[in-house]
């Protein structure tokens, strides 16, 4: 019976993946569940245990530390005099984790006044595991919230047997304090006391520990929780997809007063709600710009959309009278960023298109009107219609950018186009056309004011003074995604030229930097700093423009680099010179905004994008690159949508299998195949299209305007096999 079942499952899936390719057949195993399960990174349960003792850090009189891993012994830390080192144990949880540390004590003895003291030091990396945590909540706190100025969490270990949970607060009035939640991979346990904690703790005594564990606090993304999944012929890319999912899971949590960003971020309107924080260790406040990537990762992996909606709604409800929308709750919703209200617009489009919740945009339509028709017009240069950032405002990287900057304006055009689509959905054609006209005007001025024909890319800024010769990754990439380049009226501004320049000027072995220069008044490290956040938009622009090889190359350099460095798995907030964490210990080594590989693989490699809210209509246009197959599932408001494709180089054909929910329709477009320069071109050769084994007559093959791509329309509700064959 078991054998028979096993055979059946293999046969059915094999049939579903049509080509029955050895790679896909071999990885199906009925006993272990779907083949992608092995890539999932989440711990199996909310109680997480350490994986190893880093014995070379052990110091002083420590016995039985291995018992914290195998449970076979109790660990003892003993110190009786100044002659011996402070007893020290370093535990490695094996990967970055987040939550409240729990210690089961088996007893203690005091050798001096006060209980023996323990100090706990947390770090995401070994490099920054030192005398204090790499970062702890008190580091950003002022006044009463700054309870651990030492940078470590303290315990006065009582003689009885008990369990200690790392809750934010102090054992005594302002003494023996602990910061509560931590995001970390490594933790150091030190028998030691702070002078400030006298007379409650002493650095002498004996402490017995029977176990150390972590109460996981993020979203526990076990295999059964994935509503979207992905797998392809490059196991590294597949693994990084799950690494990215895990990174965003670590950031997804309930907003709580005692573990959020301490600088005025706690707000009654968001307390107790599910959100996507920026990172597990740092920020712990949801920021709008970060959601431009993290929300996509979330929609495409797990069914927890309210984590995004709660943030969109809360920030909309705090819109200022002049139309500006705060970037986050920090500083009581006053942190002055100029770009983040535009990300609110763009993220609102993503929310509506990925979830199909149109009532959301109905409810917040006046917010959209205020931001686009009141706030930004007040910061527009009249002669050019271009945005100019007001003094005192920053952006996602706090870049000094006086003058008219490409980034804000490209993002503005993207937001106007997206807002126009939302207006059309709500049947508000006047708003839609006003925003489209404005987008066209801004685009024209953008090309005229910012194009640098000498390198064939847009300047970072049109300005006088220093920094005016630089070119930046953000403005150029977004100009391509917003359709500014190639400008419909000006073929000299080519996306391909821009991307060739960026490839040459920004290339680092750990990704592409966000500026082409560190001179001329630009931050000295900018040409060596990589933001995986903004790099997502460059890679998306490469896929859009058919620069397939360089898109894959950049993904492998950047995600591959981070995956191989400490702490492994999770993707960092920023990469600095030499490929190091860009702000040393302060750097968040798990940041949702750096998880763009999830939408990149889903939207481009698998090729699935929504064309109308909730994927009622959709497009499937895979990218083959150097892969031979890919498969996955995209969660939609109508149900799961399965797509797989396989490329047969010998036959020069691509099989695409699409099983979309009933009631939906879409177009399956000819994938870009290798060896054709522009990956999306048809190479001048005739392509035969077969739908479910039948040749599709020429008249039924949609010849889409952009690039003359070949596609075929199909209905959801059943599985379709589409074969594109070169003749
Ligand atoms: C302990 O060993 C690890 C390698 O396993 C190394 O990275 C680390 O620097 C060592 N630490 C000390 C304190 O020797
Ligand atoms: C280490 O501590 C244990 C008690 O846990 C004690 O029996 C032993 O003598 C100590 N070793 C040294 C070298 O002090
Ligand atoms: C240990 O050293 C500290 C300072 O160096 C001193 O204040 C303390 O009295 C010493 N304690 C013992 C038990 O020797
Ligand atoms: C932390 O916040 C939670 C939820 O508001 C509360 O239950 C808990 O008591 C708080 N802990 C401390 C130590 O304040
Ligand atoms: C996958 O990554 C490893 C490094 O972790 C590398 O050695 C290997 O060549 C990569 N495989 C592919 C197919 O790129
Ligand atoms: C935050 O700002 C609002 C509106 O300006 C004000 O009513 C409220 O008192 C402020 N809250 C804090 C904690 O400062
Ligand atoms: C859709 O959005 C509305 C308004 O923001 C909200 O009240 C509702 O709960 C959302 N529906 C779902 C299914 O999330
Ligand atoms: C195209 O843009 C370039 C750069 O701004 C400009 O020099 C040229 O005049 C434009 N051509 C047209 C036809 O608008």
UniProtKB/TrEMBL annotation:
<feature type="domain" description="Alpha-L-rhamnosidase C-terminal">
    <location>
        <begin position="607"/>
        <end position="679"/>
    </location>
</feature>
<dbReference type="InterPro" id="IPR008928">
    <property type="entry name" value="6-hairpin_glycosidase_sf"/>
</dbReference>
<dbReference type="InterPro" id="IPR035398">
    <property type="entry name" value="Bac_rhamnosid_C"/>
</dbReference>
<dbReference type="GO" id="GO:0003824">
    <property type="term" value="F:catalytic activity"/>
</dbReference>
<feature type="region of interest" description="Disordered">
    <location>
        <begin position="665"/>
        <end position="685"/>
    </location>
</feature>
<keyword id="KW-0732">Signal</keyword>
<dbReference type="GO" id="GO:0005975">
    <property type="term" value="P:carbohydrate metabolic process"/>
</dbReference>
<feature type="domain" description="Alpha-L-rhamnosidase six-hairpin glycosidase">
    <location>
        <begin position="276"/>
        <end position="504"/>
    </location>
</feature>
<protein>
    <recommendedName>
        <fullName>Alpha-L-rhamnosidase</fullName>
    </recommendedName>
</protein>
<dbReference type="InterPro" id="IPR035396">
    <property type="entry name" value="Bac_rhamnosid6H"/>
</dbReference>
<dbReference type="InterPro" id="IPR012341">
    <property type="entry name" value="6hp_glycosidase-like_sf"/>
</dbReference>
<dbReference type="Pfam" id="PF17390">
    <property type="entry name" value="Bac_rhamnosid_C"/>
</dbReference>
<feature type="signal peptide">
    <location>
        <begin position="1"/>
        <end position="16"/>
    </location>
</feature>
<dbReference type="Pfam" id="PF17389">
    <property type="entry name" value="Bac_rhamnosid6H"/>
</dbReference>
């Amino acid at each position: 019976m078991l054998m028979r079942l096993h055979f059946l499952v293999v046969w059915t899936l094999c049939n579903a993946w049509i080509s029955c390719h050895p790679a896909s057949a071999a990885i199906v195993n009925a006993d272990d569940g779907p083949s992608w399960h092995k890539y999932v990174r989440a711990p199996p349960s909310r109680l997480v245990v350490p994986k190893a003792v880093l014995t070379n850090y052990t110091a002083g009189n420590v016995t039985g530390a291995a018992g914290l891993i195998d449970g076979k012994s109790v660990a003892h830390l003993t110190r009786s005099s100044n002659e011996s080192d402070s007893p020290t144990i370093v535990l490695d949880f094996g990967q970055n984790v987040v939550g409240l540390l729990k210690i089961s004590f088996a007893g203690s003895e005091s050798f001096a006044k006060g209980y023996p003291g323990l100090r706990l030091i947390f770090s995401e990396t070994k490099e920054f595991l030192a005398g204090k945590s790499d970062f702890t909540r008190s580091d950003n706190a002022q006044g009463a919230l700054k309870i651990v100025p030492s940078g470590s969490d303290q315990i006065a270990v009582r003689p009885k047997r008990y369990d200690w949970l790392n809750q934010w607060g102090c054992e005594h009035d302002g003494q023996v304090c602990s910061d509560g939640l931590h995001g970390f991979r490594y933790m150091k346990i030190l028998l030691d006391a702070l002078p400030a904690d006298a007379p409650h703790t002493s650095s002498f005594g004996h402490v017995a520990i029977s176990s150390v564990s972590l109460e996981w606090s993020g979203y526990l993304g076990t295999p059964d929780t994935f509503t979207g999944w992905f797998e392809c012929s490059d196991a590294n890319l597949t693994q990084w997809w799950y690494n990215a999912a895990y990174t965003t899971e670590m950031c997804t949590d309930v907003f709580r007063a005692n573990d959020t960003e301490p600088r005025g971020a706690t707000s009654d309107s968001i307390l107790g709600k599910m959100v996507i924080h920026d990172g597990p260790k740092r920020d712990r406040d949801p920021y709008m710009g970060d959601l431009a990537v993290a929300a996509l990762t979330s929609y495409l992996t797990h069914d927890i959309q309210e984590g995004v909606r709660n943030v969109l709604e809360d920030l909309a409800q705090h819109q200022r009278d002049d139309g500006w929308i705060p970037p986050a709750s920090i500083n009581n919703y006053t942190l002055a960023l100029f770009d983040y209200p535009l990300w609110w617009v763009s993220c609102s489009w993503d929310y509506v298109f990925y979830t199909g919740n149109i009532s959301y945009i109905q409810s917040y339509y006046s917010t959209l009107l205020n931001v686009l028709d009141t706030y930004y017009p007040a910061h527009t240069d009249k002669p050019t219609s271009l945005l100019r950032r007001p003094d005192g405002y920053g952006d996602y990287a706090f870049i000094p950018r006086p003058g008219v900057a490409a980034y804000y304006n490209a993002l503005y055009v993207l937001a106007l186009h997206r807002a126009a689509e939302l207006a059309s959905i709500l049947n508000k054609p006047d708003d839609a056309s006003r925003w489209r006209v404005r987008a066209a005007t801004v685009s024209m001025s953008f090309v005229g004011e910012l194009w640098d024909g000498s390198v064939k890319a847009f300047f970072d800024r049109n300005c006088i003074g220093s920094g005016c010769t630089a070119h930046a990754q953000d403005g150029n990439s977004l100009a391509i995604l917003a359709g500014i380049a190639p400008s419909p009226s000006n073929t000299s501004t080519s996306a391909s030229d821009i991307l060739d320049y960026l490839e040459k000027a920004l290339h680092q072995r750990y990704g592409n930097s966000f500026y082409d220069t560190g001179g001329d008044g630009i931050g000295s490290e900018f040409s060596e700093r990589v933001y995986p956040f903004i790099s997502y938009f460059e890679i998306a622009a490469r896929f859009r423009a058919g620069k397939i090889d360089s898109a894959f190359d950049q993904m492998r350099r950047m995600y591959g680099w981070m995956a191989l460095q400490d702490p492994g798995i999770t993707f960092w907030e920023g990469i600095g010179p030499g490929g190091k964490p860009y702000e040393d210990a302060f750097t968040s080594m798990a940041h949702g905004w750096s998880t763009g590989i999830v939408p990149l693989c889903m939207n481009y490699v698998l090729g699935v994008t929504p064309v109308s809210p909730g994927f009622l209509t959709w497009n499937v246009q895979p990218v083959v690159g150097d892969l031979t197959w890919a498969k996955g599932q995209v969660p939609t408001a109508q149900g799961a949508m399965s797509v797989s494709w396989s490329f047969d180089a010998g036959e020069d054909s691509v099989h695409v299998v699409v099983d979309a929910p009933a009631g939906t329709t879409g177009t399956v477009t000819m994938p870009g195949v290798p060896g054709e320069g522009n990956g999306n071109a048809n190479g001048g050769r005739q392509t035969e299209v077969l739908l479910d084994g039948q040749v599709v007559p020429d008249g039924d093959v949609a010849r889409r305007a952009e690039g003359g791509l070949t596609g075929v329309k199909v209905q959801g509700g059943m599985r379709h096999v589409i074969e594109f064959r070169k003749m």
